[in-house]
Amino acid sequence: MAGNFSFDQLKKAVSSGEVDTVLACIVDLQGRLAGKRFLAQYFVDTAHDETHGCNYLLAADIDMEPVPGYKAASWSKGYGDFVMKPDLSTLRRIPWLEKTALVICDVLDHHSHDDLPHSPRAILKKQVKRLAERGYVGYFASELEFYLFSETYDSARKKHWQGLDTASPYIGDYQIGITTKEEGVMRRLRNEMQAAGIPIENSKGEWGPGQEEINVRYAEALEMADRHVILKNGAKEIAESEGKAVSFMAKYNYGLAGNSSHIHNSLWSADGQTPLFYDRQAEWTLSTLGQQWAAGQLKYAREFTWFLAPYVNSYKRFQAGTFAPTKIMWSEDNRTAGFRLCGEGTKGIRMECRIGGADLNPYLAFAALIAAGLAGIDEKLELQKPFVGDAYQASQLPEIPKTLRDATETLAKSEMLKQALGDGVLEHYIHTARWEQFEYDRRITDWELHRGFERY
């Protein structure tokens, strides 16, 4: 069950006054929740069927600037409406907001009422359907890392995001004593996410001062993506209510560990009962299907890297000796690898993609991994032998794209993604990537001013 609150339960809660607000949210290109706050009674009476939003929301950059050049939406087309269709299976109570429920909406064409092909949720739904047609269900889990600051967003802004006080002054990776100091936010995050129908396994300190990791129990791909975006949004809201701030930037500080979003993925039977990657007789106990799936992800990793690292900042995380990968290869339980086999010898055997940063859009990332995995199955690819050793020092291994520009041009040449996602959809996101690069290229950074104001 995706949510934890049926529509009948919502109606009763509205009648009793327990809920007075419903958030109807779509997911934008950046993986953020966008939408409307409804008077709950109106939502129950009318808006649960559908509402509308401006189609520029899927043609805007992270600053909410309408981006020129999209075919799907533009000034010349008048930036009309699209339909926001609540998926009532995602309805849930939001414990950290007073008397509030939330529902995720699909984005539909205003005229045909078909899924808008370039909306992130529709892109993932298409790939999930491809799995279902073959009798598979994809189970995914994304680990999210973030920095917790003893700052508010206002105080961080006034400091120009420099010299910020982290929740702990030194690295507390796995250390219980230091993370106890961070429990004001983290305990609420674990418990209130659980109460919102997002099952939390654990949280822990990570390899940076004030850096946290929170693990959500695996789920079917679409449900896991929904959990991911609600968790990110909720983490910010809970932290802010505690006078703190969190950041999911891939690399907020050159000298500190980056924030990743490792993605665990595997295939199961359509009824969700039989693991299709587990074969105790196979090499690495990974079935032929699992090996082909992994081989596809390895073959096409450079082509879909943008879906795991969508910003200029994303590529600053890929540094040797930081637990972030720099090479495209797989290994058995090796954290220098781009892909790591986990759960070997058990029904939980799965591939962990370690390339993605916490700034990724999970719908796009999951869709790309599914598309590449299916390509590996269709092409009956053979999985190479696992790498052993320090991948950072292995110069012969293929590299993850080093820059957004490199990843964008590699994405633009991908015939596999063009076939899997559709020409128009891929073009939409290539344009998104090129706009991000264009915006960066014309801006003057603090680093340039520091180096060149006096010295040039």
TrEMBL record:
Q: Give the protein name, as stated in the record.
A: Glutamine synthetase family protein
* Pfam families documented for this protein: Gln-synt_C
What positions does the domain GS beta-grasp occupy? 17-115
Which SUPFAM superfamilies does the entry mention? Glutamine synthetase, N-terminal domain (SSF54368), Glutamine synthetase/guanido kinase (SSF55931)
What InterPro entries does the database record attribute to this sequence? Gln_synt_N, Gln_synt_N_sf, Gln_synth/guanido_kin_cat_dom, Gln_synth_cat_dom
Question: Per the database record, which ranges form the GS catalytic domain?
Answer: 120-456
Q: State the function annotated in the UniProt record.
A: Catalyzes the ATP-dependent biosynthesis of glutamine from glutamate and ammonia.
Q: Does the keyword ATP-binding apply?
A: yes
UniProt keyword annotations, A-Z = ATP-binding, Ligase, Nitrogen fixation, Nucleotide-binding
Record family assignment: Belongs to the glutamine synthetase family.
Mind telling me which PANTHER family this protein's record contains?
GAMMA-GLUTAMYLPUTRESCINE SYNTHETASE, TYPE-1 GLUTAMINE SYNTHETASE 2
Cofactor(s) this protein requires:
Mg(2+)
